[in-house]
Amino acid sequence: MLDKLERLPPDPILGLAAAAREDSHPNKVDLTVGVYKDEHGLCPVFEAVTKAQELLAQEEVTKAYMPPAGSEDFNAGMQRLLLGAGHPALAGGRVSSVQAPGGCGALRIGAELVYAANQGAKVWVSDPTWPVHIPLLGSVGLEFANYRYYDPATHGVNFDAMVEDLQQAAAGDVVLLHGCCHNPCGADLTLEQWGVIADMVEAQGFLPYVDIAYQGLGDGLDQDAAGLRLLAERVPEMIVAASCSKNMGLYRERTGATIFIAKTPESAEALVSQALVAARRVYSMPPSHGALIAGRILVDQELDALWRSELVAMCGRINDLRKAIRDKLEAATQRDFAFIENEKGMFSFLGLSAEQAIRLREEHSVYMLNSSRINIAGVNAKNIDHFASAVAAVL
Ligand SMILES: Cc1ncc(COP(=O)(O)O)c(C=O)c1O
């Protein structure tokens, strides 16, 4: 029976990263996967994570299952981190959450609840969006519609087109929004534009679903959550899927949370009960390691301060790199790359054709997606000149 299943091609992004690893070119540049890299090309472990891990190892007395909703410290800490400690939804007891295996697990749990509430729900996704959104939410049974978002001509958000498309989103539909540091384009909504989306939720009744995987990598922890906080003040209900993969460097520990802002405290509790049943069907219990680390950091003042300072340094490096990449590309090509400095987070579309992206790989060992999405953090002092001259050569 199983021998009927054919071999599938590798995931396009992971396949490219594997090709980059095998490339023996001394100046190869890997800008594929969305993993933060430091100036040595390594994805570092946060010192706060190492310290929390040491404390937990000393204290650990069991490997019995976690509670189904996960660690209480983690859930409460994530609610404060995402919404801000004094948020009215928190004060009103309308917020609940469950720990999930990474941002992907969190997104999946949210999608399961959307499907349970409305099997005919249409999920509106930005064009473009992170490609994994489609199989991750679609395999639950949800349908999709696109709203226009990124304008390659301006390298920014085409907000008028976004609003025009979302005018068709009805009550019972879901609008998926990137909380900050849009993947793949790096172009984010302004706070004013988040306000317009809140007006549309009030008028049309669709459910906002915010995916936030890069909080703290754009402008800072509070600034990056400002849009979703505003939305959560204005709308009756919403879902947030948050990831600790990037901002705590806990990628392989699979650490995330699905947070519900519900109409009433009773509904907030009901949503957790639904999430637990949905999780039981898929993976049963959440993994412990990453969430215990994150929970520990979020409740311990010293570890929290250390983590925040490390994150500020990481964010600063990304923004410095954005400027350096802009300067180098402009000097090498005599073209305008100002947009790279204006975007947020780890990603940017360079605006190259697929042919140019392929030539960069084949002729210069510079690896990016065919869409010309680059991981900014893959650039460093050693490879930036090769990167800029290779881009100039294919333009
Ligand atoms: C937009 C977006 N959402 C969610 C995730 C989920 O991340 P993870 O499951 O690794 O925590 C990612 C990871 O790359 C992402 O880019």
TrEMBL record:
GO cellular component assignments: cytosol
BP GO annotations: L-phenylalanine biosynthetic process from chorismate via phenylpyruvate
Family: Belongs to the class-I pyridoxal-phosphate-dependent aminotransferase family.
Listed name of the protein: Aspartate/tyrosine/aromatic aminotransferase
Domain Aminotransferase class I/classII large residue range list: 27-390
KW S-adenosyl-L-methionine (keyword) present: no
UniProtKB keywords: Aminotransferase, Pyridoxal phosphate, Transferase
SUPFAM superfamilies: PLP-dependent transferases
Pfam families attached to this UniProt entry: Aminotran_1_2
Assembly and interaction partners: Homodimer.
Cofactor section: pyridoxal 5'-phosphate
GO molecular function: identical protein binding; L-aspartate:2-oxoglutarate aminotransferase activity; L-tyrosine-2-oxoglutarate transaminase activity; pyridoxal phosphate binding
Organism: Halioglobus japonicus
Keyword Phosphoprotein (UniProt): no
